[in-house]
C-alpha cells in the first residue's frame, strides 16, 4: 500500500479509508485496553496518533516500540477523539523497521542544546531540530524566490580561490603538498609544485567574483558556503557558514539600503507565511516573543543611522551611567555586538542600518566618501544578532582601489583580474552579504549559531 506522509494524513478527513504511515516513534503509552503511539516522519512538526488494541499484537513486538524506533503502520484513518488533531490511525498491521535500544541519546525529553550538540547526527530527529531545518529549507527557497522575482541571476562563485576577498587573512589553506615534507628548515614552500601551482585557500566571500558577474549581467546573487579561519568561539560565529551576496551595477547607497531592508523583510514574511506550525512550536518552546518579534520586524521601518551618530549615542549613554563590557573609546572604534545590540534593542527598539563607517575598520573595496575618512558601508544590525548584513558601495576608481590595496600592505598583483573590472568599463555598483545562519538565528529564536546549521564547524570541532 502506498505510504501517506504524516502531514497529509493529518489533513485528510476521508475517515474510514485504509492508510499506511511510516515514521519514528516519539512516544508510546500503553495500558491494558489501548496503546497510543505518537509517530513523526519529518513532514511536519505534528505527530500522528496511532491507536491499537494490545491484545491484537504480539507482546514482544509492542515492547520494541520505544522512543526512536522506526515503524510501519497500516490501518484505518479515523476521526480523532482527542483534542488537537483531526485524525488518527486505528492500527491493524504493525512492522518494526528498526528497534531503538535504551541507550538512544535522544530518548529523554528536555535535554540541553549543548548536550544535543554532541550528538548532532541524532539531534536532527528531535522536534526542535526538525522545526529548525524545515525552516532553513524554506528560507533558502525564499532567498531564491526573492532574487528570481527581482531580476537577479544566481551566480556560482568558486570555493577555492587564490585571493582574500576581505583582506583579513582569515583563510583556510587548500593544498595537496605533503606538509610533513615541505618548507622545512625555513625553506620557502614550493607552491609551484602544489595542485594549482600557487597558494590557494577556501573562499571567505564570493563578492569579488560576484562583482565580475554584476558588471556583466547587471544584477547577480551568490548563495553558497564560505569559510573563515577566525578563532571566534561565540554563539554567532562559524568557521563554515552560508552567505548570500547580491551585487548590483549602478546601485547607490540609498538603493542598497532599500534592497537590504526589502530583502530581509521578505524572508521574515516568508517564514511567517510558510512555516506557521514550526514557528508556533518554537515560539512556545524556545522564545515566547518570537512571533511578535518577527511580526514587528516586517512592519517597522529600519532606522538609518551614520556610524558617527551611533558613536555619539553610545558616548552619551555611557556618560549617563550605562555600563558596557567593552569600552566605548569614541570615533574610530569597531563596534562590538554588545554595542550594536544596545542601539537596536534598547535605544531604537528596531533594526538599524548603520552607514559611513571609518574606512580603516572596514574592507579595502568600499567606496570612500568625499571626506576621505569615512566610506559608504551599510551594515544591518538586528535584535538578538547584532550584524546580520555587511554591505557597501564599491570603489569604482581603478587608481583609488590600487592605492588602497597598497596602503593596506596587500599585493595589487593578486587582484589583477578584480582590478580589470575597474580598468575596462568600470561602473558604480554596490552589494551586500547576509549571513544565512544569522538570519536563521533571528527567524527561529535559537540562541546559538551551532544549532541552526546541521553540522557546525567551529574551532576544534569538525565532527561528521
Ligand atoms: O561583513 P562580512 O564580512 O562581509 C562580506 O563578506 C562582504 N564580502 C559581503 C558583501 O558585501 N558581499 O560578512 C557578511 C555577513 C555578516 O554580516 C554576517 O551576517 C555573516 O556574513 N558572517 C558570519 N556568519 C557566521 N559566522 C561567521 N564567522 C561570519 N562572518 C560573517
Ligand atoms: Mg561585516
TrEMBL record:
It catalyses: tRNA(Asn) + L-asparagine + ATP = L-asparaginyl-tRNA(Asn) + AMP + diphosphate + H(+). GO terms for biological process: asparaginyl-tRNA aminoacylation. GO terms for cellular component: cytoplasm. PROSITE patterns: AA_TRNA_LIGASE_II. It comes from the Bacteria. NCBIfam families: asnS (TIGR00457), PRK03932.1 (NF003037). This is Asparagine--tRNA ligase. It comes from Segatella baroniae F0067.
